[in-house]
C-alpha cells in the first residue's frame, strides 16, 4: 500500500466525520486528528481510527492501530494525518506477509 493510498483513507475518514457532524472543512496531510485543537471529539476519534483500521484491513493488511504506547505522549502518531500515515506504513512494513 502506498503513502498516497493511506493518506486518502485517513482523509476520507476524517472528511466523513466532519460531514456527519455538520462541521465545515476538509482534511489534508497536516490536519490535526487528536488533541485540543482538533475538530474531532474523543468518541469521533475512536470511530475514525476504527474506520481507518477497517479500510486498511479491507485492502489486505492485517494491522491493529491502537496500542497504548502509540497513543501516549507528545510523539503519538495519531496527532496528524501525516503522523498516522507514517505509523501505518511502519506497521505494514513490520507485518508478516
Name given to the CATH architecture:
Orthogonal Bundle
Overall, the morphology is globular
Q: Count every beta strand, where a strand is a DSSP E run of 2 or more residues.
A: 0
Biggest beta sheet summary: none
Number of helices: 4
CATH topology: Non-ribosomal Peptide Synthetase Peptidyl Carrier Protein, Chain A
Please provide the ordered H/E string of secondary-structure elements: HHHH
Number of domains: 1
Describe the fold and architecture.
It is built from four helices and no strands. It has helices at residues 3-20, 42-58, 68-71, 81-94. It has a single domain, classed as Non-ribosomal Peptide Synthetase Peptidyl Carrier Protein, Chain A (Orthogonal Bundle), CATH 1.10.1200. The protein starts with a helix and ends with a helix. By secondary structure, it is an all-alpha fold. Helix 1 (3-20) crosses helix 2 (42-58) and helix 1 (3-20) packs across helix 4 (81-94). The mean pLDDT is 89. The longest helix has 18 residues, at 3-20.
Give structural attributes.
97 residues, mainly alpha, Non-ribosomal Peptide Synthetase Peptidyl Carrier Protein, Chain A, 4 helices, 55% helix
Question: What is this structure's SSE topology?
Answer:
Layout: H1 3-20, H2 42-58, H3 68-71, H4 81-94
Helix pairs in contact: 1-2, 1-4
Brief characterization of the structure:
The protein has 97 residues and is mostly helical. The protein has one domain: Non-ribosomal Peptide Synthetase Peptidyl Carrier Protein, Chain A (Orthogonal Bundle). It contains 4 helices and no strands.
Amino acid at each position: 500500500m502506498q503513502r498516497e493510498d493511506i493518506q486518502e483513507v485517513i482523509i476520507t475518514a476524517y472528511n466523513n466525520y466532519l460531514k456527519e457532524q455538520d462541521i465545515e472543512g476538509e482534511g489534508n496531510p497536516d490536519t490535526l486528528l487528536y488533541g485540543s485543537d482538533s475538530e474531532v471529539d474523543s468518541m469521533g476519534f475512536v470511530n475514525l481510527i476504527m474506520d481507518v483500521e477497517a479500510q486498511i484491513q479491507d485492502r489486505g493488511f492485517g494491522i491493529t492501530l491502537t496500542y497504548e504506547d502509540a497513543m501516549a505522549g507528545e510523539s503519538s502518531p495519531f496527532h496528524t494525518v501525516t503522523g498516522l500515515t507514517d505509523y501505518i506504513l511502519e506497521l505494514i512494513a513490520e507485518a508478516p506477509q
